[in-house]
Amino acid sequence: MSTSNGNPILVTGGTGTLGRRFVPLLQEAGGTVRVLSRTRREASDGIEYVTGDLDTGEGVEGAVDGVETIVHLAGAAKGDGEKTLNLVRAAAGARHLVYISVVGADRVPVVSTVDRAMFGYFESKLAAERVVAESGVPYTTLRATQFHDLLLTTVRGMAKLPVIPVPSGFQVQPVDTTEVAARLVELTLGAPAGLVPDIAGPRTYRMADAVRSYLKADHKHRALVPLRLPGQGARAFRAGANLAPDHAVGRRSWEEFLAKQVG
After folding, report:
1. Which residues of the chain have pLDDT under 50?
2. Where are the alpha helices (DSSP H) in the chain?
3. Domains of the chain, earliest start first
4. The pTM is what?
5. pLDDT value at position 160?
6. What would the pLDDT profile of 199-219 be if each residue is shown by its tens digit?
7. How many Å from the N-terminal Cα to the C-terminal Cα in the chain?
């Protein structure tokens, strides 16, 4: 949506898993959407694309020109702090910065090479959260649990093996990506609110049960073997650091998602 004075809303990560759901919903609210892209793209479907690279900062100042609201959806397994810093340096005059993070960003310790290999994403998101909070730009940060789409990608990869090693003690609370996108639209159109309550899926599953649900939906048969992972990050996962049972506000279940996507 455009702001009240007609300025566009800039979206980073607008072509990613979440961005592809978020941008159309934002457009439905009315107004102008500008998407930051690393590669040159022609305008289409009412979306303006601007070229810029968050890794280097090149083109970012031009992308934020005339923008008052920024929705930062771009993310990676590492380097989010530096990317976000390049964004906020260019966006010092913005009135609202909306950021999507992950549940457990502040609870999953990443202190060893083993931790970083498995849970570097959490460290990266926490670094970006801190940059946003310390930027001086009024902000809103939403933490979400695992998206259905990303969990599906994970279990599909696991199911390529004849025997599937499943991290013992791990649980997941997958949430529908479109529901997260809809919540982000609400937050984008509202006033900056700082760190807001998490959004999480309606049910918590043992990782092994989530894998079995996928195998059943895709008519596959695999043996599962428990695998106890080392490190402090894995210990935190076994304690449920990636879950938000008090914020199970999502409506669409993992089984409902699978029924539409698999089989």
Report:
1. 1-4
2. 19-28, 60-64, 80-90, 113-133, 148-158, 177-189, 207-217, 232-238, 254-261
3. 9-261 (3.40.50.720)
4. 0.94
5. 95
6. 999 999 999 999 999 999 999
7. 36
Taking the C-alpha atoms of residue 125 and residue 162, their distance in angstroms, rounded to an integer, is 33
The DSSP call for residue 245 is: G
Q: How far apart are CA 200 and CA 51, in angstroms?
A: 33
Question: Going by DSSP bridges, is the β-strand pair 171-172/47-51 parallel, antiparallel, or unpaired?
Answer: unpaired
Closest by CA position to 242, among listed 106, 89, 88: 106
Asked whether 68 and 96 are in contact (CB, 8 A), the reply is yes
3-state secondary structure of 47: strand
CA distances 34 to 84, 88, 164, 189, Å, are 18, 17, 42, 15
Q: What is the Cα–Cα distance from 196 to 101, expressed in whole angstroms?
A: 11
3-class DSSP string for 133-165: HCCCCCEEEEEECCEHHHHHHHHHHHCCCCEEE
Strands 96-102 vs 139-144: parallel, antiparallel or unpaired:
parallel
Give percent of the chain with pLDDT exceeding 90: 88
Q: Are strands 223-227 and 163-167 parallel, antiparallel or unpaired?
A: parallel
